[in-house]
Known about the structure:
Blueprint: E1 20-23, E2 28-31, E3 37-42, H1 53-71, E4 75-82, H2 87-96, H3 100-117, E5 125-128, H4 133-146, E6 149-151, E7 160-162, H5 178-187, E8 203-208, E9 223-225, H6 227-239, E10 243-249, H7 253-268, E11 274-280, E12 283-285, E13 288-289, H8 300-305, H9 310-317, E14 326-327, H10 332-347, H11 356-367, H12 372-387, H13 396-408
Parallel strand pairs: 3-4, 3-10, 4-5, 10-11, 12-14
Antiparallel strand pairs: 1-2, 6-7, 7-8, 8-9, 12-13
Helix pairs in contact: 4-6, 6-7, 9-10, 10-12, 11-12, 11-13
This protein binds 5'-O-(N-(L-cysteinyl)-sulfamoyl)adenosine (5CA) and zinc ion.
Amino acid sequence: MQSWPTPAIPTLPGRGPQLRLHDTSDAQVRPVTPGQTATMYVCGITPYDATHLGHAATYVTFDLINRVLRDLGHDVHYVQNVTDVDDPLFERAERDGVDWRDLGARETQLFRDDMTALRVLPPRDYVGAVESIGEVTDAVGRLLASGAAYVVDDPQHPDVYFRTDATTQFGYESNYDRATMAEFFAERGGDPQRVGKRDPLDALLWRAQRPGEPSWPSDQGPGRPGWHIECAAIAVNRLGVPFDIQGGGSDLIFPHHEFSAAHAEALTGARRLARHYVHTGMVGLDGEKMSKSRGNLVFVSRLLADDVDPAAIRLALIADHYRSDRMWGDDSLSVAGARLDRWRAAVARANGPAAQDTIARVRQHLADDLDTAKAITAIDAWAGDAIGGLGSSPDAGRDIAVCVDALLGIELGR
Ligand code: 5CA
Ligand code: ZN
């Protein structure tokens, strides 16, 4: 699929410390250790509705990681999918009387526009589920051949399932116990009641065609892909295993990332799909997680249409730590907007305190599991001093603007 345009990223002189990130599977913050090219896969949208602030917070978080890795001198091979074949898409298309392909294309384009406005660096490979069906059918065939998958005993709907016990390490990514797995499996797209499965947790790999549903040919007969195998196949075929960072919101920890990892590990024999499993907290509104099913959504495109400065949206989204579940508040935008005004006024001044210490601090805080709150406080302190007339460096404003642009993705206009 076509990605979106790359915003300009200025180069910041010098180097920061090694990046450390929280890994869900090891439940600790530890160094990210890429080669020259860092490899990152982040789960993309299911395009049946517009991008809300929860999605945006997640993609901006991985954009910060992308920027920090580049600042450390790495190339970043970033891959993202689009789940453009899935039940919610068919249901919404049916409800609205539109073709599911047109709905997916329209919402994906809206997402590209939102990401462009938020200055999110595009993935190198942006891959739709429809585009990757050949990769999925190949993977399903191999999983069947190795005994990691089986066809349910249902001649009418011979769906293919993945054996939860196909890999010995299953469960290492989420560390959830069986009861928690069962709960999230049922809540997040699983089908524990499906008759003919060997284990209620076994995950769908290939869904045999049902009347009225789109289907594609495969050796197993016509059907469509399951969810986890889509991300497993797309990631493995572009990044190899293990890759450096697998990312998404915390709602993907189980079953999605556990099974994506298990599918990929059963396919390749690798012990671990990703070196780091990084998960963002959930953004909520009015006391509840923002989600399409609850309908408590604030859309990025709506704010942009209301002429909200995208830099203020971005700054509001990174004001608190990415791993915390947090609420979007009535004052989130006004606080960020006021801060942006102050930063812009500060960098526009003829003189300010030399920027080196502040830049070093920003790099240090971001390297510490993306401590954006402290990074922002460091810029606030510099801006306060500059506006207070301290310092006599004529380059300071420009240097801070370059730092904020390169690392936080926010343009201050100098
Ligand atoms: N297409 C799948 C992933 S393969 C999917 O989960 N799509 S999604 O559109 O539902 O979500 C896209 C991304 O936004 C996922 O990483 C998801 O974890 C994240 N996300 C969804 N809701 C929120 C929220 N309220 N706060 C933060 N992140 C969220
Ligand atoms: Zn995914």
